[in-house]
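Changelog note: in this version the structure field was regenerated for every chain. One regenerated record is shown below for reference.
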Amino acid sequence: MTRWAAAALVAMAVPMAPATAQNWNAEVVETEQGYRVGDPEAPLQIIEFISYTCPHCATFDREAEAELRYHYVHEGYAAVEVRHMIRNPVDLAAALLTECGNPSRFFDNHKAVLATQDDWLATARGLTQAQMARWASGSVGNRMRAIASDLGLDDLMEGRGYSASEVSACLNDESRALEIAEKSEANVAEYAVPGTPSFVLNGTLLEGVHAWQPLRQALVAARQDNE
């Protein structure tokens, strides 16, 4: 037996290590209308419409994360695209902050803002007349910075590793603010989104689905249809 033949036999006898599974939660891209995580070719394509001042959106994010992100997305069954629905100036300030920096940071920023919603919404309910006046006057950047400062959203982002100057620059980005608002209006027009959270699955708006359990049922049914 030649040396090369012996080496080939040894190679055949030693089992190959299994390939490392793809972690689709690490695949984050900015789309034309939002941010997507997951396999762009996944059989289940979900669009999630959210407002950061919507308590039901925070509840959805909390209840859905374990199964949606760490089963459906992680395993390549689904991709999730988050799109902003801007209902008020606070939504806009929060959206600017979630989009601050590299697109790969979006979903962690998104989660952080929703996870702390109870705290900063409680602060918003106690606004003084002077604070409300600051929110409604001056340039877009001035208003966005006032909102972020009064609600502690700037501190939240600095706690996530952003510098004060980075946070300020994102809040001052008037062209980005206008773009976010225009995209929100376009989404309403395209899908006739009735409220938040709402979901589009494979191009179709899921009527009456505004929480995790109804969405989960729709995903289970869609997977069965695809098998």
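Spot check on this record: Residues 34-226 form a domain with the Glutaredoxin fold (CATH 3.40.30.10). The first strand starts at residue 28 and ends at 30.
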